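Input sequence (241 aa), recorded before submission:
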Amino acid sequence: MNGDFYVGYLPKAPAALAKWLARIVSATVLGGLAVGALLILDQPRFAASKFEYSVYREYAGVIEEWPYPMLRTADTAFLLVAPEKHGFSEASKLQGHSVHLQGALIERGPDRMLEVMPASLREISALPTPSTKPVSLGSVRLRGEIVDSKCYLGVMNPGNGKIHRDCAVRCISGGAPPAFVARDASGETQVLLLVGSDGRTLNREVLSFVAEPLEISGELVRSGSNLILKADPPRFRRDSE
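Predicted structure, token format:
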């Protein structure tokens, strides 16, 4: 009989068999660790964004309704949204009014947004703000992806791509401003607020295009620190078309 014969109820395996099994187990564990490390290293890095969840700070500025609700201060502008998956619906009644509010900061690079605390909004004495007359930068043709600005700017990470599509559709349906993240040949991105060619806000019209690789032709406009892309959904082209 072979001296390496072994059955599980014996207290100890033969030395040669035990050594062979130890090598197999060690190789399996090391292989698993190596595969795990490669998968981690292959993941894209999270964006340098943040959401100060439940940290409400004081802000004051002038409400602007176009292209989407925002609070404009002397040196910057904050897009405004309500908690959860809702847009900021008070802007239409306060266009041009100076207000004080409490908001949780959402930030990604130079782009900023506030999740406004309900019932914190109140009018104050008129504040000076710089002129924000829109300036046309001409016609453009850009490639990129439609996202919901609230999640993309910091509430979710990542806040774009197919994995985020269902959430983005619900956020845009609820009133979060849609944005077009344009990418150049080097991979650099720019966040553009997306409106119709006549300047109207877009909502359900863009839902079928969310998270798709697109090519959009339209007019690029600057309003204060915001870049706006004016284009009509029927003319959006999927990159695969």
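Checked by second reader. The first strand starts at residue 49 and ends at 51.
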